[in-house]
UniProtKB/TrEMBL annotation:
This is Dihydrolipoyl dehydrogenase. It comes from Clavibacter michiganensis. One of its GO terms (molecular function) is dihydrolipoyl dehydrogenase (NADH) activity. Residues 134-240 form the Pyridine nucleotide-disulphide oxidoreductase dimerisation domain. Belongs to the class-I pyridine nucleotide-disulfide oxidoreductase family.
Length: 252
């Protein structure tokens, strides 16, 4: 489960020799791999939409508010231009794009009919989760699944946190899932509010554990209440109980 991370490294030459690829780096070292993935990022396909005719920059991402309304002079009068999905650069994931579209569709209808717009955090017409609770899965072997803030992001946000780690392979249900199951779970707790602000799982099929973590983060469920969410035995979901036990049981 180890990863060799080379920070600040610049490849100077790439050659293929049979079934292997050799990457030579600027510092004189080299890496041998089966294949090379060149991940150069993503750019919005907004060049040929006529955005310049309404004062927007072609080829750029479209900044939006939490109701998906494009910000700036383009909507200074009657609001009409919305942007959902990757084009607004909030959360470049298919499921987040669909989440944004549901909010945008509802708010467009509400504004068009003169209805009430609920744009408060976690309201009907906003995509608050884009900021605080984006679930994402990297389908590698092992899988990596996370939602909410990492420990570093929580610290940068000024939260007083505690990080709890637990070995997924020590959960009773892991042995039923696979022989030699290995993985890790991490829970990031906001100590002042007593709620979970981030969860990360690494291990086989951990994507299936993620939605329970998403509910805990989005719902801001107090840790004291989570003790009453009893996981079935023997399942990998018992990791929730183990994380809580590691954190410590509340006192009266």
């Amino acid at each position: 489960m180890g990863v060799d991370v080379r920070l600040g490294a610049s490849p100077s030459r790439v050659t293929r020799d049979g079934d292997e690829v050799l990457v030579e780096l600027g510092d004189g070292s080299s890496i041998t791999a089966a294949e090379v993935l060149v991940a150069t990022g993503r750019t919005p396909r907004t060049e040929d939409l006529g955005l310049d005719s309404v004062g927007l920059e072609p080829g750029a991402y479209l900044d939006v508010d939490d109701t998906m309304l494009v910000t700036g002079d383009v909507n200074a009068g009657s609001p009409w231009l919305y942007a959902v999905g990757d084009v607004n650069h909030r959360a470049l994931l298919t499921h987040q794009g669909k989440y944004q579209a549901r909010a945008a569709g509802e708010v467009i209808a509400a504004r068009a009919t003169g209805g009430t717009v609920d744009d408060s955090p976690w309201g009907v017409h906003v995509a608050t989760a884009d900021h605080r609770a984006v679930p994402q899965v990297t389908f590698t072997d092992p899988e990596v699944a996370s939602v909410g803030l990492t420990a570093k992001a929580a610290e940068d946000a000024g939260l007083r946190t505690r990080v709890v780690d637990y070995d997924l392979g020590s959960v009773a249900g892991s042995s039923l899932h696979a022989d030699g199951y290995a993985g890790q779970a991490r829970m990031v707790v906001d100590e002042e509010r007593g709620v979970i602000v981030g969860v990360t799982f690494v291990g086989p099929d951990v994507a299936e554990l993620l939605h329970s973590a998403t509910i805990a983060v989005v719902g801001e469920v107090p840790l004291t209440r989570l003790w009453h969410a009893v996981p079935s035995y023997p399942t990998v979901s018992e990791v929730w109980l183990r994380l809580l036990e590691t954190y410590g049981r509340p006192t009266a």
